[in-house]
Amino acid sequence: MNITLAQPNLLRNQSYINGQWVPADSGKTFAVTNPANGETIADLADCGADETTRAIEAADVALTTWRRKTAKERSLILRKWHQLILDNQEDLGKIMTLEQGKPLAEAKGEILYGASFIDWFADEARRIYGDVIPTFAEGKRVLTIKQPVGVVATITPWNFPNAMIARKIAPALAAGCTVVARPSKETPLSALALAELAHQAGVPEGVLNIIVGSSSKDVGGVMTSHPTVRKLSFTGSTPVGKALQSQCSDTVKRTSMELGGNAPFIVFDDADIDAAIEGLMGCKFRNAGQVCISANRILVQDGIYDEFADKLTKRVAELKTGNGLEEDVKVGPLINKGAVEKVVELVDDAVKKGAQVTVGGHDSEQGDERYYQPTVLTNVTDDMDVFSTEIFGPVAALYRFKTEDEAIERANNTPFGLASYFYSQGFSRIWRVSEALEYGMVGINEGGISTEVAPFGGIKESGNGREGSKYGIDDYVEIKYLCMGGIQEA
């Protein structure tokens, strides 16, 4: 497949280990395809356990020098990397749309979002402060310093192939850690392009390594078992996260887990309905609904339910579905046919149990099984599978509720606790509901909550740790306590 890029060397097909582009030891390759049409974009080196081991060893060697660099030296390299990403936004956006499917405008927006974390942590590198603690005894002094945790392994998903990896690598490098990263086999090209720009920015050999391969078990197994890796950061499903966390326990690695979600989006009867619909459109249909913090259960108070459903249906009907490189397309394909089949099953189950499709649904006669039309479901109830299952598709499921207490109880009735949203104009209600929702993040009269300046992460079975903000670098440093004795008093 021919791809026109201003900088063609951003399209890489090998792993990046110790500052070199390397093929698979086996000589095997795997195909990366365009979800919009099934065409092969590139054949990539199919690396596995041996290559991952070498990458970890390279990261370990590089750690000694990288951690000794001053915070300002690391900051300047990150700053240069950030600028190169901005300079190549168009190319990076094209690569992402081709391998992931999202509309080009969204892809280019993600490039800026991912770059914002590199920019942010370039500054935070110089703010890793220790403390002097009031002493507990005469002749002693108590201090703490923060040091890099060591070699970090990261595993990232396909839905945000640039941003997910940038917001893990940036704080790790800023803290003085070295990294071995495995992007999804569905979307590895964006990560490799980032590695090429990191190389151009002067990131030393071994400090950043990218392993691409078709077997998550082969690569992930080494990452979780190798004693040199001191931290694993993972974004993905809750079942996989639990398995990885268990595997890391043998070597007592630190872990950060950003796992599945089941976000409620509550609209109270005192809300600005038009503002709520506007917020929901971006929250639900961005990236074709393939977002961990996407609105999954839309709870609308009884008095405004019908008006809200009618207005939402009209807005959703305006969305154009198609190849993300085409003009005016707002919703691209799902990542693969299996993803479409999952959405079909959820909607079919809801309809069988009494839900109504007011717009959209799967058109099996359209001749392409990679797309699912933006859909609104009304009269959805809690006994339907769609209530407890993360949809990961462009389907807005609307539920009725009567009281505030009922909305909170139903919103919290899930093992997940990543993101939540609600719309209300009542000052007291805003405080009550914000405090009552059992989620790591709450959007109040706002459907877009992702930013590098705020902590991103969940509670309960949605994971642990935070990415972004001043808290984000804490996951990549260890606190060391220094007790100084023998100090002579005057």
From TrEMBL:
Gene3D superfamilies: Aldehyde Dehydrogenase, Chain A, domain 1 (3.40.605.10), Aldehyde Dehydrogenase, Chain A, domain 2 (3.40.309.10). Its EC number is 1.2.1.79. InterPro entries: Ald_DH/histidinol_DH, Ald_DH_C, Ald_DH_CS_GLU, Ald_DH_N, Aldehyde_DH_dom, Aldehyde_DH_Superfamily, Succ_semiAld_DH. Coiled coil: none annotated. Pfam families: Aldedh (PF00171). Keywords: Oxidoreductase. Belongs to the aldehyde dehydrogenase family. This is Succinate-semialdehyde dehydrogenase [NADP(+)] GabD. The gene is gabD_1.
